[in-house]
Amino acid sequence: MTDLRELYQETILDHYRQPRNTGRLDDANRTAEGYNPLCGDKVTLYLKVEEGVIRDARFEGSGCAIATASASLMTESIKGKREDEALRLLEKIHGMVTGGGQTGDVGKLAVLAGVHEFPQRVKCATLAWHTMKAALENVGEPVTTE
Ligand code: FES
After folding, report:
1. CA dist., res. 4 & res. 39, Å (int)
2. CA 95 to chain centre
3. C-alpha of residue 47 to centroid of ligand 1, in Å
4. 54 CB near ligand 1 (under 6 Å)
5. What is the pTM of this model?
6. Domain ranges of the chain
7. Distance, CA 145 to ligand 1 centroid (Å)?
8. What is the dihedral of CA 44, 97, 109, 30, to 10 degrees?
9. CATH class of 2-144
10. What is the pLDDT of residues 60-100, one digit of tens each?
């Protein structure tokens, strides 16, 4: 288990130090802002959705290691997914980090499971995911984790 935990930490640190899919997406047709009022961290998500499929995803903003890694992993994992699949993934991730840390079939995103041991970090891990839901639902106002 220790090895696994180390691997998880390594992946999270890797995505924190070198986040994937950062920056503005000029041809995005869905965007949303997410905000964690507990720390003031913000993320802006840009999605390009065509015929119900997320063709591209990028994010920008400032956040802690978990929030940044989670946003990076999320953008990687939702590209090419249908909107309903991405929303189902959100439910799984939410259940994983708020529940018992069961990873189920979330693939690489299982690295976020360790967060369930740190309830105060759950909002960090889910910030980008709530923002993704807001973008897909075209919520015009910033979403918060509160
Ligand atoms: Fe702000 Fe994690 S401490 S999102």
Report:
1. 29
2. 14
3. 22
4. no
5. 0.91
6. 2-144
7. 10
8. -30
9. alpha beta
10. 998 899 999 999 999 999 999 999 999 999 999 999 999 86
